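Appendix B, record 7
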Amino acid sequence: KLVGADLTEANFEHARFAGANMTGAILSKASGDRANFKGAILREADVSKAEIDRSDFSEADFTGANLQKAEMGRTILVGAKLDGADLSRAEVARAVFKGASLVGTDFTGAYTYLTRFDGADLSQAKGLTQRQLDDACGDEDTKLPEGLQRPETWPCGQD
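Structure tokens (predicted):
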């Protein structure tokens, strides 16, 4: 139980936080490639500028979390809850958001190269642009915000 813990600039590479309650924790500028956060609760957490590439956040709860400028390349966010989370200017290249809840999630300026939005509901996400969707991947089950079009390159192949 790490509610409100200050883990600023901590190194948790290969760490296991599966199921941990980290509500309101501060992980700003932390690094932790290949960490396991399956089912972790990170509500209202500050994960800004953290480097957490290739980590597993399946079924994690990031409701209202600050993920500004976080480096989350190749992270697994399958079934994660990111409602109201701020991913502005985050790097989520090749991350997998399959089935994630993204109500009010802010993607302003996020880097979405080959980001997998298969089966994700982006209809209420904020800040998404057509360019970001063109760089990303999705499928026929991906729901888009009003005014944005499904790219001709979808579905993308596996890489």
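Remarks on this record: The mean pLDDT is 95. The CA atoms of residues 47 and 71 lie 10 Å apart.
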